[in-house]
Amino acid sequence: MSDQASNRARRAARAKTPLTEEERKARRRAKRNLRQAEAMGFLKGVTAMLKPGDLAMDCGANVGVVTRLLADTGAEVISYEPDPYAFEQLTTAVKDRANVRLVNAAVGASSGTVRLMRAANFDDNMKGASVKSTIVDGGRTIDADNYVDVALLNFLEIIRAEIDKRGEIAFVKMDIEGAELDLLEAMDAADLIKGIRCLVVETHERKFADLRPRFRALRETFAAKYPARQVNLDWI
């Protein structure tokens, strides 16, 4: 058997061998790390276009990694983070940034008070698990009994006021663990997205199986209406 044929045979044998759980986890980690690297590369391109006088909004700021990058451009930054633990870390991370305004609240298509549910492993790994905190029921790996009540702000009213005042919002990043679906649908219906120069979103259909048909419909609608350079639903 030739070396080429032997290599093909080995690859075929590996393909038929079931992966162990540890191997599957390693693959998922590798894919996630690649997505994150691509997202940060995209973000650096966006930040290169931001300047003092622009407004950038970070929805789901967590501990402040993206907020700091946005702040370094000199643009005005408003960051929203509902999780009390993450908000404390965020406050520390940007305490030296005078151009950043922090808001300890969730954003959505309405206002009020909502339950912010934590990941099942939150108590064991607060920093790592705080990125999963969600106000949407039915999330995978979420412990619905471990929650805190948080403020919910009507983001439609907020961005409408900013667009009326400034003419446009330069940049919005949205990573709000499933709540983006209701909010994006409402923003589209209210014709507010045209006032945002660049909108990047991490969507979470993989965590909310019941919402996948709506996510698919949203993607189809947005692909038909908005150019990819303006709206990116695959940020991570």
From TrEMBL:
GO terms for molecular function: methyltransferase activity. Keywords: Methyltransferase, Transferase. Its EC number is 2.1.1.-. InterPro entries: FkbM_mtfrase, SAM-dependent_MTase, SAM-dependent_MTases_sf. Residues 1-31 are annotated as: Disordered. It is an enzyme of class 2 (transferase). One of its GO terms (biological process) is methylation. NCBIfam families: fkbM_fam. Residues 58-221 form the Methyltransferase FkbM domain. The keyword Ribosomal protein does not apply. Pfam families: Methyltransf_21. It comes from the Bacteria. This is 31-O-demethyl-FK506 methyltransferase FkbM. Transmembrane segments: none annotated. Gene3D superfamilies: Vaccinia Virus protein VP39.
